[in-house]
Every structure is written in C-alpha cells, then in structure tokens.
Amino acid sequence: MLVLLGFILVFHVATAALLFIATIDNAWWKTDVSSTDIWQTCYNNGSECGDVSIEHYGDCIKAIQATMCLSVIFCCISFIVFVVQLFRLQKGQRFYIAGTLQLLSSLSVMIAASIYTNQEENFHRNMHVGNYGYSYILAWIAFAFTLISGVMYIVLRKRK
User: Fold this and answer.
1) With contact defined as beta carbons under 8 Å apart, do 131 and 36 qualify?
2) Residues 136-143: what's their mean pLDDT?
C-alpha cells in the first residue's frame, strides 16, 4: 500500500508540473521567427516579447487563461486535500473530495485546450505557417493525467 501511495503522490506532482509548464511556458504555437502562448508572443528567439492583445485574440484568450489557471489551482488544492484526507479519513472510505477536485482540474484544462484548438486559425492568421508547440501538447497530456488521477482517487479506498 505504501508503494501505491508513493506512486500516486509522484504521479500527482508530475501532473501538477505539467500543468505549470503548459500554463507558463511560451510554446503553444511555434514558427521560425516567433513563439506564442496564452500570455505573450515573442519574436527573434525571445528577444522581443509583448502581451497578447485582446483585440487580436478576443475574449477567447481570457477564457483560455482563466481555465488554465483554474486547472493549476484545482490540481494543487486536490493534492493538499489528498494529503489531509490520507491522515483524516477513516478506514474503508474513498477520496471523493480529492478526486472531484482533480476531475475539475481535468475539465478545466480540457476546456482551455479545446478552445485554443478551435480558435487556432483565428489566433494565428497574421503569422507565418507554424505548428503547435510543446506546451500545447503538454496541456493535452496533463488533461489525460489529471483525468486518470481523478478516477484513481475516487476508486482508491483507505486501507491500513
């Protein structure tokens, strides 16, 4: 049981790290001369950076920023709640609160990545041809990981 708890804790920390990187790092869209994320656009290998303009991206970028921040917050709170429940729950009970918070984190990151995917051609119509960056891919991987860990928490029972 101790090995399983260790795996769950490491998995949760790795998931939180993926969410932090996907939210903060400047690599949602990459071209030869620029890279952009949900916060700023950088040109010439990061030497010239500017905030994303609401006029160019519209209100969709605000929704993406908000849901990515929510996913990180839900993931961190879920970790704290899991550790508290680990010591407070009675034998045989499930980690429903931690699992629900983790599933909310999963839902939030899925919404953000889905909006970005849907609006990608509107966001980058004035840029050179490019590709999705690794932060965008990490967001989708973090979605899968948070979904898996949320289900794991709900299924997991506290044992002695």
Assistant:
1) no
2) 94
